[in-house]
């Protein structure tokens, strides 16, 4: 884990409690993310997901702990780490295309204008935007289109780590479904490492290689790392028929409904918290054990 592409070691965050004291949001959280992995984090409101995201983005400093990317401790924001927020955060005075080229030109300063344009247009196209739409300003685009621009912009910059903070939270279910599939398409064409917050269990199963589960705050911890044992490519309408789908879903629902509360506040003193790896695979014949001793088969 310490050698992972992204390693989070003993991350702790405390905030003032507004009454002269302070409270601990999470303590000694440690986990790793490998290059090219798509990892989602799930947990109840207030457990500290956005706080972890802001620390990874370099927008906030932790009370304790270290984050290393490619072996280097990170500090402050960097073009190596891109963020997509729920509220799009596009520059309102620029067209969709210019919102993308703006970052690409900064990221690849040696590129010609034509290269920057072609690269940006290609990413916009992957998320379903082409023609007139890319020359419109954000106020002239629908919410779904704006979020497509944000996603295209983030991927086009090719950051080493892409952070997605509930990117589909403000979208209706139909638009959400379409853009989730576009996100998979654009991610599959890169070796991009993605860390994403979502409140949607089905979205997490569709998108992630692994789901990190957090217990409730205060004193929250990252308790489990659940592998999504459903092969890619994944299509929403087909994956629900995979034997592992409901087994994984039930495990996540159980955790969020019950165990996240039971385990809450059990983040222990100075010990390093490492999430337990959970691998659920109903496709293995009865009585088969995985050879990897790190993995635990779960019976639901
Ligand atoms: N700057 C701050 N000062 C004081 N307390 C804060 C600050 N930022 C966050 N908190 C508190 O830290 C806790 C975790 O907040 P955070 O936004 O990280 O949770 P979250 O899991 O992302 O929640 P949600 O799912 O609702 O977005 C909350 O109790 C919140 O009130």
Automatic annotation (TrEMBL):
Bilayer disposition of the protein: Peripheral membrane protein
Annotated PROSITE patterns: ABC_TRANSPORTER_1 (PS00211), ABC_TRANSPORTER_2 (PS50893)
Segments forming a coiled coil: none
Sorted UniProt keywords: ATP-binding, Cell membrane, Membrane, Nucleotide-binding, Transport
InterPro entries xrefs: AAA+_ATPase (IPR003593), ABC_transporter-like_ATP-bd (IPR003439), ABC_transporter-like_CS (IPR017871), ABC_transporter_ATP-bind (IPR050166), NO3_transporter_ATP-bd-like (IPR005890), P-loop_NTPase (IPR027417)
NCBIfam families noted in UniProt: ntrCD (TIGR01184)
Similarity comment: family membership: Belongs to the ABC transporter superfamily.
Protein name: Putative ABC bicarbonate/nitrate transporter ATP-binding protein
The species this protein was found in: Octadecabacter antarcticus 307
């Amino acid at each position: 884990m310490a050698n992972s592409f992204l390693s989070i070691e003993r991350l702790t965050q405390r905030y003032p409690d507004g009454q002269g004291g302070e409270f601990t949001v999470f303590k000694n959280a440690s986990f790793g993310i490998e290059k090219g992995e798509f990892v989602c984090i799930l947990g109840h409101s207030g457990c500290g997901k956005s706080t972890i995201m802001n620390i990874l983005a370099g927008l906030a400093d932790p009370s304790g702990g270290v984050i290393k990317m490619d072996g280097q401790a990170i500090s402050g924001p960097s073009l190596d780490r891109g963020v997509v927020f729920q509220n799009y955060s596009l520059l309102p005075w620029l067209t969709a295309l210019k919102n993308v080229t703006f970052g690409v030109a900064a990221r690849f300063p040696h590129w010609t204008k034509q290269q920057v344009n072609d690269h940006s247009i290609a990413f916009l196209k992957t998320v379903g935007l082409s023609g007139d739409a890319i020359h419109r300003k954000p106020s002239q685009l629908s919410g779904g289109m704006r979020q497509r621009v944000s996603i295209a912009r983030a991927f086009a910059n090719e950051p080493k780590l892409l952070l997605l903070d509930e990117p589909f939270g403000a979208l209706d279910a139909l638009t959400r479904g379409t853009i989730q599939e576009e996100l998979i398409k654009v991610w599959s064409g890169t070796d991009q490492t993605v860390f994403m917050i979502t409140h949607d269990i089905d979205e997490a199963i569709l998108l992630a290689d692994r789901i990190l589960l957090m217990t409730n705050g205060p004193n929250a911890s990252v308790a489990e790392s659940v592998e999504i044992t459903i092969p890619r490519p994944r299509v929403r309408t087909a994956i629900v028929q995979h034997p592992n789908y409901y087994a994984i879903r039930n495990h996540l629902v159980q955790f969020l409904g019950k165990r996240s509360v039971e385990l809450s506040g059990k983040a222990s003193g100075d010990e390093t918290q490492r999430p337990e790896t959970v691998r659920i695979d109903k496709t293995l014949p009865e009585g088969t054990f995985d050879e990897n001793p790190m993995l635990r088969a779960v019976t639901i």
